[in-house]
Structure formats: C-alpha cells, structure tokens
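Predicting holo structure, flavin-adenine dinucleotide bound.
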Amino acid sequence: MKTEAKAGAKAGAKADGVGAGAGAGGGRRGSVVVVGGGLAGTTAALALADAGLRVTVLEGRPRLGGLAFSFRRPSPVGELTVDNGQHVYLRCCTAYQWFLDRVGGSRLAPLQSRLDVPVLDADGRPGRRLGRLRRAALPVPLHLAASLATYPHLSLAERAQVGRAALALGRLDPADPALDGVDFGDWLRRHGQSPRAVEALWDLVGVATLNATARDASLGLAAMVFKTGLLSHPGAADIGWARTPLGELHDTLARAALDQAGVDCELRAKVTAVTRTAQGRWTVHKAGGAPLEADAVVLAVPQREAHALLPEGALADPDRLLRIDTAPILNVHVVYDRKVMRRPFFAAIGTPVQWVFDRTDASGLAKLPGAGESQYLALSQSAAHQEIDLPAAELRARYLPELERLLPAARGAAVRDFFVTRERTATFAPTPGVGRLRPEAPTNVPGLYLAGAWTATGWPATMEGAVRSGLSAARAAVSDIVRPHLDPPPAAGRGIPKEAA
Ligand SMILES: Cc1cc2nc3c(=O)[nH]c(=O)nc-3n(C[C@H](O)[C@H](O)[C@H](O)COP(=O)(O)OP(=O)(O)OC[C@H]3O[C@@H](n4cnc5c(N)ncnc54)[C@H](O)[C@@H]3O)c2cc1C
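Done. Tokens:
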C-alpha cells in the first residue's frame, strides 16, 4: 500500500491537475484532492497543506461549511443573517477549538467562563420554575455536586439516583465495543432513573448532544458524551457558541485560511466519480469540468454520497454505510417586537421547547435601523422526527404559546417574523449498534481516505467529530505520502494536532 502511495507522491510533486484548478503550491511533496468542504473536508485540507502537500478542495455547494452554515433572509424587520441551526460546542471539544484557532475565529465563538445552564420548567410552580446546571470551582465530580443537590426539577431521591448513575457512567469505557449495542434508555432504567430524571436531566443534555433520546441512543456514545463532557475535567462542559453567523467562521474565515495555506478551493464543483489510474494515482471527475489527478483523495462527504463515490474494494462491506441512519434537527425562529428573554440561552422541560438562544446580535438584527427593541430567538429542536415535515403554520401554532408559557414577557409581544429551518439529515443517528458501521479514515485502497462526522471518531455527530475525522484522514494521508520521504517534522504549531491521534 505505502509503496504505491509513495511512488504516486513522487510523480505528484511534478505534475498535478489535468484540468482547471491544479492550484497553487507547486513544488510540494504530493497532491491530494479533498471532496467536500464541510468542517471535516476543510480541516483535512488545512492539515494536509500545513504538512506541505498540494491540496484542492472540491465542494458541490457555492459555500464551505457543510451542515453548519448561514444564509441571508429578507424579513419584515430587514435582512437577517440566519444560521441553519444553532450550534454549540463544549470546552472538551479540543479539535474544534483547534479549527477555530486555525481559521482565526476563536474570539468570535467564545466559551462561558464557567458552565451555567438555566433550565426552565414550563409546568413548575412559581419560585421553582428555574433550575441551574452549573459548576463550582471544585474537582470532578464535586464540581457538579452542589448544582445537582439543589436542582429543583428533581426530588431528593431522584437527585441521589442521578449522582449514583453518573458515577456508574464514569466507570464505563466508551470505547468498549460491548457498550455500542446497548440502549442508553435501558441502562438508565436499570440504574434507577425515573422518567422525570431522564426528561429533566439525561435527555435535556443527551438530546442536544446526541440528537436522540436516551432510548434511541447507544450507551457507548452516551457514555462518551457524559463522561467526557461532565467527568473528564471540571471545565469540560463549559459551553461555547458563535456570536457571529456560522458562515463567518466556517465559510469566510475558512476560505481565507485555505487560501493562505495555498489550498485551491473550487465551489459548485460536484464530484461524480473517483477512479484509480493505472499508475496508482487518482482521477477525480466533476460534473461539468475537467477531471483532476492526484496522489490521494479524501472523501469528506456524507455517508450516502461516500458510498456512491467509493471505488470497488475500498471497504470490505461498503453497504454498511447505507445502514448508518440519519436524524433531523428543526430550528424555529421567532422575532419579537421587544425583548422577551434576558439570558443568552436557556433549556426547557415540561414543554416541547428544547433549547432557546438569543440571536439578536449574531443575526445582525440589533444593528438594523427599524429593529428598535426587537429580539430574535432561535429554538433548537433536536431529534425532531415527528415535527420535521410539519407546515410552518402548525409549528407556529404549537411553539408561540409554549414560548409564552416559558417567557411571561412574550405574552404581550408582537411577532414580527416567524420561520423554520429544517435539516432532515442533520446528523447520523446514534442508535445502538451504529459504532460497528462507522469506518476508520484509511480504506483498503492506497491513497483513499474517509472523513466526516459519521466516520469512526468515537464522538457523536458534532463539529468536534467532523474536525477530528478530518485530522485523522490528513494524518493517515500524510503518513502514507510524506513520511516515506523522511522529511523533517513540520515547524512547531503548524503540524497536525495530537487530538486526532
Ligand atoms: C441544525 C443542526 C444543528 C447542529 N448542532 C450542532 C451543535 O450544536 N454542535 C455540534 O457540534 N454539531 C452540531 N451539528 C452537527 C454538525 O453540524 C455536523 O456534525 C458537522 O458540521 C458535519 O460536518 P462534516 O464535514 O462531517 O459533513 P458535512 O457538513 O455534511 O459536509 C459534507 C460536505 O460535502 C459536500 N458534498 C457532498 N457530496 C459532494 C460531492 N459529490 N461533491 C462535492 N461536494 C460534496 C456537501 O455539500 C458538504 O458541504 C448540527 C447539525 C445541524 C444540521
């Protein structure tokens, strides 16, 4: 395998593109085409270019960012910049933070200084409606103990049971293949968790991070999320989110970083086939454009697209990719004529509403001349299987009264705009057994690598998983193409970070 890749790399250092887009960076040590410009593909391209390879990204859409993007929307208040879905990350997402750093976007998506999640119970008695999940400046697991002990949405007995289950979860090894097939909901039941504890705590966090309720989630992935997020480090679950449109980070800044790294980036370049040449190199065919030739290819597209593009023999059982199911996320966007919520975000129970974020500044609403006191809220509704295809009018009739139940100030407010964004294949479904379907980055054919949040990262479908997958693919390609030349290691700070190891 490696010999062929090495031979190809030598050839690739001289001749590269057979069509348009051969790109900058001539004289580099080998060439790679990255198919897909989501977070996985962009990451792989940056890491490969940083390692001295000549890289071309081919992205089918007119922008980078894949599933995490923004668009402009004319609204009665003026033009808004809307994220297709609210995205958050945690302090334990070290690879995504590397990405933010690498594109120069860290300050635009800061972390909370300390985990603090307001949890509103729509059915709660006055004085007991608001709970807080926050951490204290104490070592694990005491950092969360005080918050749990005073969490008003659970009884004393339920809080004690949650503490015991959390400790049991902390003893599991998320990488243990035996956990992959176990249903997290069942495990919680066996560990004494009441339906209320599941709703008010486990699903509150789990649905947003796994995009599935506990009963539809693999114990391995759930253990990964809860153990890494809550029990690996006191600050691991501090929440970060973009204070700017996602497109600014994942498209504008990413494109500038790729450009600076010498990566050739072709948008509206849909790849139709990837074939091996007689010399062991790769030809990447695009719809309506000349093909490109390269030493290696990273397929950073969703699992179905990857299945369609995989050449014969690349995976022992390629149809496994088709058994990796998907799960939807719905976002409900409401612009009120006044401020109805004081906090930047909250989570809710006792209502279909899940997580609500204030988007007034990030969308540009705050600066619109006619905005006045208007406030823009985005409701992030994960695992929205039942609602993803409902008409907007029905969703409006469902969610506006719920917001009024949660936010008294919304009761007298006028709605200036209401719309929804639907992502039917937002993530892979983290169902029990999905772990054995997720492939590693290297394939069985030399010079072909897979990336994407759906590959075997150990993480659920997240920005973190996507970045990790891109780093893993780059690492595998670099070790096949570059290392055989025994070149010196990249300069400090420019190599592929260890997170991918
Ligand atoms: C609404 C929503 C909310 C989310 N919330 C969060 C969150 O809060 N936190 C979090 O961490 N994650 C969240 N996620 C998940 C996160 O966005 C994804 O896991 C991540 O962006 C996936 O990146 P990727 O690069 O693996 O795949 P993708 O983003 O799917 O990128 C694949 C790219 O390949 C391109 N492509 C496909 N076929 C071809 C082809 N033939 N030729 C060329 N290009 C092609 C596509 O156009 C796309 O740009 C959310 C996702 C959604 C949709």
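The chain is about 30% helix and 20% strand.
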